[in-house]
Write a structure and sequence with these properties.
Helix content: 40-55%
Order of helices and strands: HEEEEEEEHHHEEEHHEHEHHHHHHHHHH
Structural class: alpha/beta
Distance between the termini: 22 Å
Number of helices: 17
Length: about 425
């Protein structure tokens, strides 16, 4: 193998001619960095840095430029080359395209891809220490690599079933709206905000033809989601997420528990109040997951507090609706609504009214067996990414990292397939 070809392989670059290799020393006379001088091949020269269309040369540019490459051993390495400017008919005067780096980047593609791959698997602090770059540089690289990956693929092709949800990513009520493909499990799109204008942006990106192809949309009971889906995809069936319905029942049950606890406390029944205060998890958990102590606690409630135990049974029967699904689930839901309306427990009477209001969406979820489980899984991984990275200053960096990690856009490590 020729020496120049070897250096090109070591640096992970193609389409260049290696001209010289030199070093720079620090004040102690030690090697501070390695400089590899290169020039473009004729086939790669004179292309717009944005669209890579062949364009007329404008001037010689700012002279020699350097791009940070992956370290060779323990020595920082830079690729150096003269890059002229060209006049593109679409983008005006821009720096010409170089095959070893993305447009506007100060690092080689191999360096960017390595940093992006590491950012999806470890903390930004570890990436900064390993690659010797700044904290903010990691975010910039993630955004750049993510944008480049998304530009080269059609992520909205063959969309039929999607899930929509929001997730808090920062204190101060900062939210992301996320859209997930139920068929692939991949994150399709994310944007800051949780309102109609934010979600409308996603459907505008889809276009009328692809919006018309969507058949099922899973979501919670948020009205802003329902309004936009009805406007942009009137043919789509909205499926209410079963988890949120059962969550409503759990909150209603806890409301009953607190009411009974307050009544016992005010009536001087301290022992009963103490038992009820410690019974929250026994009432919340699924029967098959109860410990022996929690089972005993639940049995005690059955003996001593008929109203609270009825509320517990109401919660459990509603959960059973979504285990049965289909026509059996809808039939059991009819029975549950009849029981809840006449149970004389105000929290569950209100819950029955709320479920009646969303009955069509709940029936659709039972019929199509669709929930927001995939979306919640993506949300959980998003929280983990944020925690591993110790937060993000810019939401664009978080979205970029999410698309790399959860959207199937993460590049492989250089030299590996």
């Amino acid at each position: 193998m020729r020496r120049t070809s070897l250096w090109a392989r070591l640096l992970g670059v193609q389409g260049v001619i290696m001209e010289d290799i030199s070093t720079e020393e620090n004040d102690d006379g030690e090697i501070a960095c390695l400089i590899v001088s290169a020039r473009l091949r004729k086939a790669e020269a004179g292309r717009c840095g944005v669209c890579r269309r062949r364009s007329a040369q404008y001037d010689r540019g700012p002279g020699q430029r350097r791009w940070r490459a992956l370290d060779l051993g323990v020595i920082p390495t830079f690729l150096e080359a003269e890059v002229p400017r060209v006049r593109c008919r679409d983008h005006g005067v821009v720096v010409c395209s170089v095959p070893w780096a993305r447009h506007g980047a100060g690092h080689t593609r191999a360096f960017d891809d390595t940093a992006a791959w590491l950012a999806t698997r470890t903390s930004k602090t570890a990436v900064t220490a390993l690659l010797r770059i700044a904290w903010r540089t990691v975010g910039s690289i993630v955004s750049r690599v993510s944008a480049d990956a998304l530009a080269g693929r059609d992520r909205f092709g063959n969309l039929r079933r999607i899930g929509i949800d929001e997730i808090s990513y920062k204190r101060g009520h900062r939210y992301l709206t996320v859209v997930v493909d139920h068929d692939t499990g991949l994150l399709l799109w994310a944007a800051a905000g949780r309102d109609e204008a934010t979600l409308r942006t996603f459907f505008d990106l889809l276009g009328e033809e692809r919006c018309a192809a969507i058949t099922l949309v899973s979501a919670d009971a948020a009205q802003w989601i329902a309004n936009v889906v009805a406007e942009k995809c009137p043919q789509a069936t909205v499926c209410m997420d079963p988890f949120h319905v059962v969550q409503w029942a759990t909150k209603a049950l806890d409301e009953v528990r607190r009411t009974v606890w307050n009544e016992a406390r005010r009536g001087g029944q301290k022992a009963i109040a103490a038992d009820l205060k410690g019974a929250r998890f026994a009432l919340w958990k699924n029967p098959e997951d109860l410990t022996e102590r929690q089972q005993a606690k639940l049995a005690g409630i059955q003996r001593t507090n008929e109203r609270l135990y009825r509320a517990y049974l109401l919660k459990e029967q509603l959960r059973q609706v979504f285990h049965l699904r289909g026509k059996e689930g809808m039939k059991l839901l009819d029975q549950w609504l009849s029981w809840a309306r006449r149970c004389r427990i105000s929290a569950f009477v209100k819950l029955a009214a709320a479920i009646t209001d969303h009955r069509s969406a709940i029936d659709a979820a039972l019929t199509n067996e669709l929930s927001n489980a995939r979306v919640e899984s993506v949300n959980t991984k998003l929280r983990l990414l944020t925690r591993i990275a110790y937060g993000f200053r810019l939401v664009e960096a978080l979205i970029g990292l999410a698309m790399l990690s959860l959207g199937g856009c993460c590049p492989p490590l250089p030299g590996r397939r």
